[in-house]
Amino acid sequence: QVQLVESGGGSVQPGGSVTLSCEASGLDYKTSYMAWFRQTPGKEREGVAAIELGAGVRVYGDIARGRATIARDSAKNTMYLQMNGLKPEDTAMYYCAAKDSPRARGSSILSASEYNYWGRGAQVTVSS
Fold it and tell me: Which of 103, 116, 117 is nearest to 23 (CA)?
């Protein structure tokens, strides 16, 4: 069974940085993308960043472009998200996701509906 476990969340000062980790198990060769999403109460899940596991192509959402980096360590079966310049509005539950399903035509790779495996999330709180 596929399991995704996030870690590295917590409280951080505004302007600071956070590095999240997602340890994956049970993924097979069909897994094409992994991604990070975030969600706050009352809002839909939004895409932060995604990485294509074959070529390593990275895709960033507008909320993260320029201040986030997504990476994967294949040997450790771990995906990372580093975000800099954190703001209070970055406070959210951050989720790790993986996809082995066919990509829906016309759908963004940063759409939550593209992913069929999810972690339980890691809370990131940005406050003074």
Answer: 117
Extract the tokens encoding 88. Answer: 């209070």
Can you tell me the distance from the alpha carbon of 113 to that of 10, in angstroms, rounded to the nearest whole number?
Answer: 27
Sign for the CA dihedral angle at 104, 107, 110, 111 comes to: negative
pLDDT category of residue 19 using cuts at 50, 70 and 90: very high
pLDDT by residue (tens digit) across 36-94? 999 999 999 999 999 999 889 999 999 998 999 999 998 999 999 999 999 999 999 99
112 contacts 45 by C-beta, under 8 angstroms: yes
